[in-house]
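User: Hey, quick favor. My workstation is busy. Could you predict this chain's structure for me?
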Amino acid sequence: MNLLTGPRTRVWGGFALAAVVLFGLAPALLSDFRLNLLAKFLCFALVAVGIGLAWGRGGMLTLGQGVFFGIGAYAMAMHLKVADAELKGQAVPDFMAIAGKTELPGYWQPFASPYVAIAAVLLLPAAVAFLLGLGVFKRRVKGAYFAILSQALAAAFAILLVGQQSMGGSNGLNRFRTFFGFNLNDPANKRMLFFIAGAVLLAAVALIRQLMQSRYGELLVAVRDQEERVRFLGYDPANVKLVAYVVAAFLAGIAGALFVPIVGIISPADIGIVPSIAFLIGVAIGGRATLLGPVLGAIGVAWAQSAFSENWPSGWIYAQGLMFVVVVGFFPAGVAGLFALARRRRRVRNLPDPAASAVEALEPVKVPS
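Assistant: No problem, here it is.
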């Protein structure tokens, strides 16, 4: 095998190219506003990577990723608001002071520590997904029932936050000034957040690729296609699904935590049913069964939404719906599936024609005189 065209070389070459684009070309070519916008899209791509594992490889239609995105986002936002209040010498964040409160609620107090906030971002979404998945998958809930349940969870979580004035209510939490001591109004720190988001995304893609290429990845596909046969072989499909679901929630929580300082706000509107479906649309358009399809689909759909909203504000929702219908109806494998189909056809064209080979074999051999 040629080392320059081997699978490992292509993988490392792909990661190197992505690193050059993210850490070299993008900061050099984009303005600060566009770079910050791309950092926001990278957060969406991070959620999409987890959905690609759970839905694309595991067959679990996760319509409630906004819940785990929101848990990570609110955990980070609570710490940032408390840290900003401490810098000002105030006992409570600004929105609580306006409401007349003079003391932090009990469940806010631990988030004054950055270590607690980071632990909550990493552990809480995964823990919630573990408990929810344990109850759902052990009862063999799947298909449309699982999708409806996860969507209902996202709706309930958003409604719960709207009624919690200590969490900002429908306005959410916003106006963050610092991020672990760094001034968020400084353009250099904004770029730092972009680099962090890019590095985390590359690490997440590497993690998911390792899972897909491992024995676990093969078992996950087997559970998706023939769950009863896998159970007959002695494996518990519920445990296999649970791992993918927890990993997807883990990545969504990290994405939410990065989203907060990058965008500067988190509210129930960012974590309900509509955002959860938007995550899914990007994955479907990009190609849910591939590694890079969800990433490119999420970034592409988010970029298209921004471009449409700037020039055609009322038309984006129709364009998004049309794209989803076209992909589901005519290209179920997504855009990445089209490239895979083209490669397969090219390989088939390059194969020798069996009929011609058979005729050639039957031709008499000419003996030289």
